[in-house]
Amino acid sequence: ANIFVDSAYLENPFVVGGEKNTLHVKLRNDGNRAVEQLMVRLSLNGVQAGTGAVNLPAKGENTVTFDLVSSSRTARQAVISFNDYPVSFDNEFFLALNFAEKIKVIEIKASPSATPVERVFGNRDVFTFRSYDSRNISYAALGEADLIVVNALERMDNSLVQALRNYGVSGGTLLLIPAAAPDLSAYRELLNMPTLSSVSEPQLVEMDNPDINNPFFENVFEEKSNRLVLPKVRRVLDWGTDRSALLRLKNDKPFLSVLNRGGQVYLMASPLQTGYSDLSGNFLFLPVMYRIAASGKKSSWKPYHDLRETLITLRADSLLPEQQVKLAGQQEIIPSQRKLTDRVIMELPRHSLQAGFYHAVTGRDTLGLLAFNLNNRESLLDPLTPEAFKQQLGNGDHITIFDTADGMSFSNEIKARYLGTPLWKYALLLALFFLLVEILLIRFIK
Question: The pTM is what?
Answer without folding.
Answer: 0.60
